[in-house]
Amino acid sequence: MTTPTLSDARAELVRQRVLDGVAKVLDRGELLTFASVAAAGGVPERTLYRHFPTREALLAAVFDAANARIGFEGELPQDASGLRELVRRAFPGFDTMAPVIRELMTTPEGRLARLASKPARQRAALALVRRELGETDRARARRIAAILQLLTTAAAWQTLRDYWDMDGEEAAEASALAIDLLLDGAGRAREQLPREQLTRRGSPARRGRPAKSPRSARKDGP
């Protein structure tokens, strides 16, 4: 185990002050600028730039800190139980830092931070669908995986908060219920599909139109 150096300790102290500054600025409803963050965090603006030279770097650090605060360390759920556990931990945590979450959701830099893990999240969601539902066609699995991922995001939390006045705990239970209903319904529908539709890489044929052959079907990758 490597012992942190004095320089590392100072860098971490600055980082924490900067992140605290971000939270204070957003809690007050102020515009997030380097000057406002430096003032709120009690660090010189030049020091802030040295550690976070761009807004992208700053919001990426905020994103990582938000995940750490809700206890998410990057390990994505592998089954339905893991999805339910994630929303029940994350959504109440979002309540405690709502201004920070909104900043991550509504700014270009926040979007970049969220999308940095897009490929890994897609792969994990698709693997979860295969684990829960077994063999199914690729297009159908992709759509189910997309909705499952959506139900675990801050966007779902924010929508339930804005339109239904739900706090994080109630929003988490609503999302967990939707996850169960989606997987249960998809499982029952899967049992009624002909086997060729379960193994085909494309989507089922539309009414009145022939299905594409496997060779000509479009491949819908993550």
Structural features, described:
- Helices cover 70% and strands 0% of the residues.
- The protein has 222 residues and is mostly helical.
- The protein folds into two domains: 9-53, Arc Repressor Mutant, subunit A, CATH 1.10.10; 73-199, no CATH class.
- Indicate the structural class: mainly alpha
Low-confidence stretches: 202-222
Task: Name the helicity range.
Answer: 55-70%
What is the β-strand count? Answer: 0
Total individual domains: 2
Sheet having the most strands: none
Distance between the termini: 37 Å
Strand content: under 5%
The coarse silhouette is elongated
Number of continuous helical runs: 12
Order of helices and strands: HHHHHHHHHHHH
Radius of gyration: 22 Å
Fold blueprint:
Elements: H1 6-27, H2 34-41, H3 45-51, H4 55-69, H5 80-95, H6 98-106, H7 108-115, H8 118-133, H9 138-150, H10 154-164, H11 168-192, H12 195-199
Helix pairs in contact: 1-2, 1-6, 2-3, 4-7, 5-11, 6-7, 8-9, 10-11
Which key phrases capture this entry?
2 domains, Arc Repressor Mutant, subunit A, disordered C terminus, mainly alpha
What is the structure about, briefly put?
This protein has 222 residues and is an all-alpha fold.
